[in-house]
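Tip: read the tokens left to right.
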């Protein structure tokens, strides 16, 4: 990132908090099959609609004393935490150097990073809570990723345009086929679902955004990080052997890591 003025940082933080607030709505409504637009924000216990001043990310949660103004029921700390994480993620995106996007104007890369990280954060939270990845989000993410590459290859002539489009579409397919094969074979060997089809759609999303090299690195990183996490979690008794645990967060985190640092960084770490 080059030099930005303080306004840029403030804008980024506020943007992250508001999108984080919207992610809270998605996390609540998507698994319940509710519309994400109507009705407006309401208390999930007493259903009373919220005034705008009770619906300000982070701030409202603090001045309302962590409780609903009307029914006094507790508001989970998960909501402000999600908003904070989203805000921090948006800030980190200011420094992202995704390999296949290096020719692009840095403001566009930042906005693309915000879109990608919002999608990944939503998937991560829903997968942790429900062991489920909503199709609507992964399909939407795949389509946005391919459209981005298509538009960018038309605008920036540094790209051999057909080559990069084919690369990203192939990457999406490679990811999907690799993970659905692992899921299929794993189910035969372990006699229970090992890797869900939701994970296959998520890695297809990764491919659409990061291209072939990127998706291969993410597959590798997600297996390594999940293996480290599950060994540690077993060791401290956080999970028991055979307990299902979500794989989406590891794919999401790895995708974000590769978006942030670029491909070469991760390849170097592995070979040196
Ligand atoms: Zn209430």
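Filled-in amino acids:
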């Amino acid at each position: 990132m080059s030099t930005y003025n303080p306004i840029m940082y403030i804008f980024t933080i506020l943007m992250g908090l508001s999108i984080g607030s919207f992610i809270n709505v998605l996390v609540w409504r998507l698994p319940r099959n509710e519309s994400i637009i109507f009705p407006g924000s309401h208390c999930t216990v007493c259903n009373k609609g919220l005034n705008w001043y009770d619906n300000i990310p982070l701030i409202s949660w603090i001045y309302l004393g962590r409780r609903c103004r009307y029914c006094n029921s507790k508001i989970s700390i998960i909501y402000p935490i999600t908003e904070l994480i989203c805000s921090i993620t948006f800030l980190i995106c200011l420094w992202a150097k995704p390999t296949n996007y290096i020719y692009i104007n840095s403001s566009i890369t930042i906005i693309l990073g915000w879109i990608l990280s919002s999608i990944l954060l939503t998937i991560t939270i829903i997968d942790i809570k429900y062991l489920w990845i909503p199709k609507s989000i992964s399909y939407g993410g795949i389509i946005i990723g391919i459209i981005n590459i298509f538009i960018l290859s038309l605008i920036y002539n540094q790209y051999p345009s057909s080559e990069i489009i084919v690369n990203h579409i192939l990457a999406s397919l490679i990811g999907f086929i690799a993970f659905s094969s692992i899921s299929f074979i794993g189910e035969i060997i372990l006699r229970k679902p090992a890797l869900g089809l939701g994970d296959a759609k998520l890695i297809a999303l990764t491919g659409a955004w990061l291209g072939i090299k990127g998706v291969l690195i993410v597959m590798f990183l997600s297996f390594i990080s999940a293996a480290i996490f599950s060994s540690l979690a077993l060791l401290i008794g956080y999970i028991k052997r055979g307990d299902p645990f979500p794989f989406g967060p590891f794919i999401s985190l790895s995708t974000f890591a590769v978006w942030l640092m670029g491909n070469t960084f991760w390849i170097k770490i592995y070979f040196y």
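The mean pLDDT is 92. Residues 43, 45-46, 48, 68, 70-71, 73 surround zinc ion (CB under 6 Å).
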